[in-house]
TrEMBL record:
<dbReference type="InterPro" id="IPR035979">
    <property type="entry name" value="RBD_domain_sf"/>
</dbReference>
<dbReference type="InterPro" id="IPR000504">
    <property type="entry name" value="RRM_dom"/>
</dbReference>
<protein>
    <recommendedName>
        <fullName>RRM domain-containing protein</fullName>
    </recommendedName>
</protein>
<keyword id="KW-0694">RNA-binding</keyword>
<feature type="domain" description="RRM">
    <location>
        <begin position="46"/>
        <end position="121"/>
    </location>
</feature>
<dbReference type="GO" id="GO:0003723">
    <property type="term" value="F:RNA binding"/>
</dbReference>
<dbReference type="InterPro" id="IPR052462">
    <property type="entry name" value="SLIRP/GR-RBP-like"/>
</dbReference>
<dbReference type="Pfam" id="PF00076">
    <property type="entry name" value="RRM_1"/>
</dbReference>
<dbReference type="InterPro" id="IPR012677">
    <property type="entry name" value="Nucleotide-bd_a/b_plait_sf"/>
</dbReference>
Length: 121
């Protein structure tokens, strides 16, 4: 009985995480691209948040910086819709949990372009 209850919680937690990610994608773009939907189910636990980015960092720069820790599936700098300017943070999606963990432990608190970078899961 206890084991069945635990598996329900795990399944529910996974479903809630997926729905949250899907809702975030819809809110950001107004539509859900199929590739992002597939990636959100496949790589949910390997996303990391990167804060404290300088204004000159774009998606390509973010990919280049974090690719030394493993395969980067997607890297996105979050921008203002009206101006297109960076909000100073981004999301990096790795192909594996180990790569994400290495990136967090190596990059969190590092000085990058005169700004302190905050990296967490």
């Amino acid at each position: 009985m206890i084991k069945l209850f635990t598996s329900r919680i795990t399944s529910r937690t996974i479903n809630m995480a997926f729905c949250s990610r899907l809702g975030m994608l819809v809110k950001q773009s107004g539509q859900v691209p199929m590739a992002s939907m597939i990636n959100s189910t496949r790589y949910m636990s390997s996303n990391i948040f990167v804060g404290g980015l300088s204004d000159d960092v774009d998606d390509l720069t973010l990919t280049e910086v974090f690719s030394s820790f493993g395969e980067v599936v997607e890297a996105r700098v979050i921008t203002f819709k009206d101006t297109g300017r960076s909000k100073g943070f981004g999301i990096v999606n790795f192909s594996g949990e180990d790569s994400a963990s290495k990136a967090v432990s190596s990059m969190n608190g590092k000085d990058r372009g005169g700004k302190l970078v905050h990296v967490r899961k």
